[in-house]
Design brief:
The structure is a single chain. By secondary structure, the chain is mainly beta. It has 2 helices and 37 strands. Strands 18, 19, 21, 22, 23, 27, 28, 31, 33, 34, 35 and 36 form a 12-stranded mixed beta sheet that branches. Strands 3, 4, 5, 8, 9, 10, 11, 14 and 15 form a 9-stranded mixed beta sheet that branches.
Length: 473
């Protein structure tokens, strides 16, 4: 019997293969059992609110070509373990190229990857998204990548550059349970679940020392509601004029606490010229919304709205302009292995305390003589003259508010914000990942290192203590 797919990720029994073919390869005769198990259906979509388009970024397009999405009920399932379920059985023969910086549909999505796929009922705690190899011997409809299948297009001159992959085209990009809302996606018997994968393209592209671009995927996923209640929206305004901040850059981040009580960015977007922003779709849960702006020489303090849930409309979110220029915090990251310096990808974030939670504050960085705002800046360490002994290194300079956040707990009738007086303290946070890993595999003995930068003042250029990683591989 011929297969509808030329390759599969896992080895299945003959009986299971027969059932998989029946469920995935054609017809609408969907059984209510799958090898004796009750079944449900799942729809799979892709989204990406983007921040790296002009004027805040270098890219006009980021194209990736998706060839499959699979899921497993075991959060710790290995690459070759059995039990992976194919969520997009039609993609293998017809890969879909998606512009991650493209305009979303009315339903918030960039692409619908799979629809009505029958799988065993259960809670799926691991997802794999597989991209088409740049050297694959196949064709893709309306391919925009000039000889490859995954690429970036520079806004400055329209030039197309391949996006280098590692295992994204083989074992796939692993989305573990910690990056899935609620820890997993539940498919109830005889019901339908809607899975959305949020691909943060702007945090996923790393510029290599040789000028090439490499994919270091940053993704989150979760079950979403296909209704208006799946969004979070608001309008960013100047706290004095109550007008949108026109002519500047305004970034809004949707953040959620990790296991260490640090607010990490789940999604981020730019506010429009009218100050408006929207996150959509948003997985069920409780979030903090963090907004920051730079308008010419005017730096705004972060405004943090806590306790936000899908369906909430924040109304006007006021940003407070600080007196004086941004602070410029400089620092160095060092990575060392057992026998000397070793390269790693290090994501550097600036954190400020909000209540009892360290919260990520989007920071400006000088790129090609222009300031760009980002929640996380990623650097690949390499050998150089300024590195600590027996280490590879990278340096950074981040432009940050010399002011404490303006904080308020969300209230539907109108949130009240307040700002603490100085001192202004930051923690610079480094997270180390293996270079070339498909899903940001943590690296080094201690994969998350924080250093303190106290008493930050306007216009100052404080040097942060070095972020040192050891035991890197």
């Amino acid at each position: 019997m011929p297969f509808c797919k030329s390759s599969v990720l896992v080895t299945l029994s003959a009986a299971a293969i027969a059932l998989l073919i029946l469920a995935s390869c054609g017809g609408g005769n969907h059984s209510s059992t799958f090898g004796g198990q009750a079944t449900g259906t799942i729809n799979t979509s892709l989204s990406d609110p983007a921040t790296c388009t002009p004027p805040n970024g270098n890219f006009s397009h980021v194209f990736v070509t998706v060839v499959d999405v699979k899921a497993h009920t075991n959060a710790n399932a290995g690459d070759n373990d059995s039990g992976f379920m194919d969520l997009t059985p039609n993609l293998h023969n017809s890969p879909v190229q998606v512009d991650l910086l493209g305009a979303a549909s009315a339903g918030c999505f960039l692409a619908q990857l799979g629809s009505g796929t029958v799988i065993p009922a259960g809670t799926y705690q691991q997802i794999r998204i597989i991209l088409l190899d740049n050297n694959a011997n196949t064709t893709v409809a309306n391919n925009q990548c000039n000889g490859s299948f995954n690429c970036v297009v520079l806004a400055s001159n329209g030039s197309v550059h391949p996006l280098l992959l590692s295992s994204e085209a083989t074992t796939g990009i692993k989305i573990p349970s910690g990056q899935i809302g609620g820890g997993g996606v539940t498919v109830p018997p005889n019901q339908t679940a809607d899975l959305n994968i949020d691909f943060n393209a702007c945090q996923s592209i790393v510029l290599q020392p040789n000028g090439q671009f490499r994919l270091k995927p940053v993704l989150h996923a979760g079950e979403v509601s296909l209704s208006a209640s799946n969004s979070v929206s608001g309008t960013v305004v100047d706290s004095v004029t109550h007008a949108p901040i026109s002519g500047g850059m305004v970034i809004v981040a949707l953040e959620q606490k990790d296991s260490n009580n640090v607010d990490r960015v789940v999604m981020e977007t730019m506010a429009g010229s009218n100050g408006g922003f929207s996150f959509c779709p948003v997985v069920a849960g409780t979030y903090d919304v963090v907004a920051v702006a730079i308008n010419g020489n005017v730096q705004y303090a972060a405004t943090v709205t806590t306790g936000v849930q899908p369906g909430n409309q924040l109304g006007n979110v006021p940003l407070v302009a600080q007196a004086g220029a941004s602070a410029q915090i400089t620092g160095q990251v060092n990575t060392a292995g057992a026998s000397g310096g070793i390269s790693a990808d290090v994501a550097v974030s600036a954190l400020q305390m909000v209540g009892s939670t360290l919260t990520t504050i989007p920071a400006g960085q000088m790129i090609n003589s222009a300031v760009q705002l980002a929640s996380v800046n990623t650097f690949t360490t390499q050998a150089g003259g300024t590195c600590a002994a027996s280490s590879d290194c990278a340096t950074y300079t981040l432009l940050l508010p010399a002011a404490n956040p303006n904080v308020g707990a969300f209230v539907s009738t109108g949130t009240t914000y307040s700002q603490a007086a100085p001192p202004v303290n930051y923690s610079m946070d480094g997270q180390a990942f293996t270079v070339g890993s498909s899903a940001g595999t943590p690296d080094c003995t201690q994969a998350d290192v924080q250093v303190s930068v106290p008493n930050v003042v306007s216009g100052a250029n404080p040097a942060a203590p070095a972020i040192n990683f050891t035991g890197c591989t």
